[in-house]
TrEMBL record:
Organism of origin: Catenovulum adriaticum
Record keywords, A-Z: ATP-binding, Coenzyme A biosynthesis, Cytoplasm, Kinase, Nucleotide-binding, Transferase
Full protein name: Dephospho-CoA kinase
Location in or out of the cell: Cytoplasm
Catalytic activity: 3'-dephospho-CoA + ATP = ADP + CoA + H(+)
Pathway the protein takes part in: Cofactor biosynthesis; coenzyme A biosynthesis; CoA from (R)-pantothenate: step 5/5
InterPro entries reported in the protein's UniProt record: Depp_CoAkinase, P-loop_NTPase
Amino acid sequence: MSQFIVGLTGGIGSGKTTVANMFADLGIDIVDADIIAREVVEPNSAGLAKISAHFGPNILNKDSSLNRAKLRDIVFKNENEKNWLNQLLHPLIRAQMINQCNLAQSKYCILAVPLLLENKLQSLVNRVLVTDCNTNTQISRASHRDKNSAAQIKQIMAAQLDRETRITYADDIINTELILTQIRAICENLHQNYLKLAN
């Protein structure tokens, strides 16, 4: 990958999408791992065929799409099934991320990966940009957005790196407690810095 890549990560509800959109507004290509993760299990994909062969046809909705809630329920309760799924999907997602970064047209690109550090993908990027806010803000944002209970959000957070550890990996940090105009100004400063680094 000749492209200069900035890895954007942060805990659930920490403002990654807001920050990614600001970089997109500056003309930067965004490669989004969440979108790729959905694409590799779309109807008629090799990924979905393997999942339905393994878990049975009941894992599909009537329209042949993946029943995510059912799958999440199975893997949340069964560590072996979770490992099986990760071993199937992670290489597919990783290959697609690398491919899309290679195809990016902007001077540098942003690779947005919620679990960049947890999945030890730092080697794919030149810099790590972390979105950060306090834990209560994460819980209220994520439960409001995903219509989940605070307990469910805390469970997801427990499976992610804690805030202090995540920050130790960061080359750059954006505090998303700030107002949007301040966040945008930080993104613009970082953008100028990344353009210099990409050259």
